[in-house]
Specification:
The protein is an alpha+beta fold. It has a domain at about 65-130. It is built from three helices and five strands, in the order αααβββββ. The chain has helices at about 1-20, 35-40, 45-55; strands at about 65-70, 80-85, 90-100, 110-115, 125-130. A hairpin with a 7-residue loop joins β1 (about 65-70) and β2. The model has no long low-confidence stretch (mean pLDDT about 80). Keywords: Signal. This is Lipoprotein. It comes from Prevotella dentalis (strain ATCC 49559 / DSM 3688 / JCM 13448 / NCTC 12043 / ES 2772).
Length: about 140
């Protein structure tokens, strides 16, 4: 009887040990099985932006290489040059020691700039010539 009781208790213990899992094992979160885009509404603002970008093609603007407007941030030591005719790009250059000016080089005047580039790569404006735009329209 003692052997039967001992074998039953051993069998119950073995069954309990084999059927229970480790509590320290990581749990696996499978998450949603359906994609999120099915549940979320479509972003209409992004779709409108995409169609607007396709409708309006960007047109490259051709600026002249050495003709600029004199910008309002120009002072005694620096010259602000704004691209002509688009006025999209701005650059600030230092003035050379002896800058030569022919014509009027005031703010918002159109000038042709000449540069001196040092061996280190720095650029200085050495000459400004006023350019009078010609009008082809009557």
């Amino acid at each position: 009887m003692k052997k039967i009781l001992l074998s039953i208790l051993t069998g119950l213990g073995a069954t309990a040990a084999l059927t229970t899992s480790c509590r320290m094992a990581p749990s696996q979160q499978l998450g949603d099985t359906v994609e999120a885009r099915v549940f979320e509404p479509m972003d209409t603002a992004a779709a409108d932006r995409r169609t607007q970008m396709q409708d309006t093609a960007t047109v490259p603007v051709k600026d002249s290489l050495d003709i600029f407007y004199i910008g309002s941030e120009s002072n005694k030591t620096t010259v602000q040059l704004v691209s002509y005719p688009s006025r999209r790009d701005t650059a600030v250059y230092g003035k050379g020691r002896h800058i030569k000016v022919s014509g009027n080089a005031d703010f918002d005047h159109i000038v042709r700039a000449r540069f001196w580039v040092s061996p280190g790569g720095d650029s200085l404006v050495t000459r400004l010539e006023e350019v009078v735009p010609t009008s082809d329209q009557p």
